[in-house]
């Protein structure tokens, strides 16, 4: 993960540098903001969904020795679409944060 973070950081830095040399500074920042926002809105739900799915699978395998009534009770609290719902909640939260950042920077 640190290597991926370093790669993504250097890629966004290179993109911002390229845009800064090719266009005016304000246009470059606008494009860099758009690229970062699209990257976050694409990568964030995929990462959250993968994490939640792996955690739910790990929990399901750990609980497989329990009686079926206990597993049915746990299933009432952790539905089958929990990964998608949690990913959607994260995306909505991220969109709200980016919206506030965008309009805080504009003022």
β-strand amount? under 5%
- Low-confidence region ranges: none
Order of helices and strands: HHHH
End-to-end Cα distance, whole Å, is 35 Å
Helical content (DSSP H or I, runs of 4+): over 70%
The secondary structure category is: mainly alpha
What about the largest sheet?
Answer: none
**Helical stretch count?**
4
Overall pLDDT level? 77
How many β-strands, per DSSP? 0
Net shape: elongated
Rg over C-alpha atoms, rounded to the nearest angstrom: 20 Å
What does this molecule look like?
The protein is an all-alpha fold and 107 residues long. It has helices spanning 2-22, 25-62, 68-77, 82-106. The longest helix has 38 residues, at 25-62. The mean pLDDT is 77.
Précis, in short:
The protein is mainly alpha-helical and 107 residues long. The protein has helices at residues 2-22, 25-62, 68-77, 82-106. The mean pLDDT is 77.
Question: Keywords, please?
Answer:
88% helix, 107 residues, mainly alpha, elongated
Can you lay out the helices and strands and say which pair or pack?
Elements lengths: L1 H21 L2 H38 L5 H10 L4 H25 L1
Helix pairs in contact: 1-2, 2-4
């Amino acid at each position: 993960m640190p290597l991926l973070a370093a790669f993504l950081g250097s890629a966004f830095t290179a993109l911002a540098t390229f845009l800064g040399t090719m266009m005016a500074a304000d246009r470059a920042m606008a494009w860099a903001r758009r690229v970062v926002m699209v990257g976050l809105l694409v990568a964030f739900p995929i990462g959250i969904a993968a994490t939640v799915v792996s955690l739910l699978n790990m929990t399901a395998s750990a609980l497989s020795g329990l009686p079926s009534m206990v597993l049915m009770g746990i299933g009432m609290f952790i539905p089958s679409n929990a990964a998608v719902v949690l990913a959607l909640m994260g995306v909505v939260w991220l969109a709200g944060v980016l919206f506030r950042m965008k309009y805080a920077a504009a003022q």
